[in-house]
Amino acid sequence: MALEHVLLGMLRTPASGYDLKAEFAASISHFWAAELSQIYPTLQRLEKRGLLTSKSEPSGRGPRRKVYALTRAGRAELRAWLQQSPKVNVERLEWLAQVWFMDELEDPKRSLAFLGALRSELAFEVAALEKIEQQWRAEDPRYPDQLPDHEFYPQLTLALGLKKGRARVEWADECIARIKTRVRRRQK
Amino acid sequence: MALEHVLLGMLRTPASGYDLKAEFAASISHFWAAELSQIYPTLQRLEKRGLLTSKSEPSGRGPRRKVYALTRAGRAELRAWLQQSPKVNVERLEWLAQVWFMDELEDPKRSLAFLGALRSELAFEVAALEKIEQQWRAEDPRYPDQLPDHEFYPQLTLALGLKKGRARVEWADECIARIKTRVRRRQK
DNA sequence: TGTCACATGTAAGACGTTACATGATTTT
DNA sequence: AAAATCATGTAACGTCTTACATGTGACA
After folding, report:
1. In A34, A63, A75, A119, which residue has its Cα 20 to 30 A from A4's Cα atom?
2. Is A71 found in the same domain as A116?
3. Do A153 and B102 touch (CB under 8 A)?
4. Which nucleotides of C are covered by protein (CB under 7 A)?
């Protein structure tokens, strides 16, 4: 399971399930997400398999935290995964399916409304990534190419997120313009 | 369920489950995929709910085909779905997660091998989309902006597939160049 | 006669989401 | 006193993949 490997990777520095959830939201959200209800059982499973160890710690506020750390076997499993060659899967994009069948509505106004809403969602995602980038840049003057490996490889993924996000916003703008042109042409 | 709606959309022209699987592979593969083992039960469910009807037909070769068609209720359901505003979900990209943690291997040669393999997979996908585009262009001189709505909206999705695919290949090339630069710098 | 393409299905398991349950501590 | 945040979990359900089962007709 890929989530297992992602968690192993994140746990190179020990953390609780709750911490991990926060980290998904903070930095990894452009290519992975997981709910607590999936994280907790997965951590338990990894511990049972001997890839993680846990210890209960008092938390400054709230109940005790269960902090997980990689075992030697866990690190070996992580390395083995990193050496697997990339598998590119089909991404299911429901909103693109909606665009595909949009002719059914026979209403360019609806199409424009849909693509407008889509554009704003996509732009919002880009803005979130740009904020993360600004933070990274502010934190370390070596950003991006002089960063140590531990931050350099994450930066590569951020670069893709930004590139892809901007391409999508551009695409939405082009769609809107093309549909408007068609409407005008039909009115003549 | 989104697959249900995608099937309803595809069934505006009647088809069998087997046909639909072929169409996923032929034209929709850049944003959706489904196995026969998922398609058949889903079609049955949609029929039970009154959104589809089926009739058994002899096939030129092989066993009889079960051809499904939209009912009035099915068309209404399709329209209702198309009027829902877009929901953009997190796409889980395992290969990007591998890049994120790649520093663990402490081996730029492995990173380059990984990104090289990735680049070729991504380029292969772009090539497949370009082939589809060439076909469409050859079939209809109105491609892309003078196409009737029924082909115009699908073309919009193809345009995104191409744009995104090319951006990803570009990104992989940049990653490879940046890693090589780092290696050279370290050797000095 | 064997293999390939056509054609439809079931079953088991993996993965992910939503809802529910519980309780501590801090802030308003 | 209520709400928000910290913290861990279970249960039910929905979705997707992989493996298995069955059978027809065409072609080599």
Report:
1. A63
2. no
3. yes
4. 5-12, 14-20, 23-26
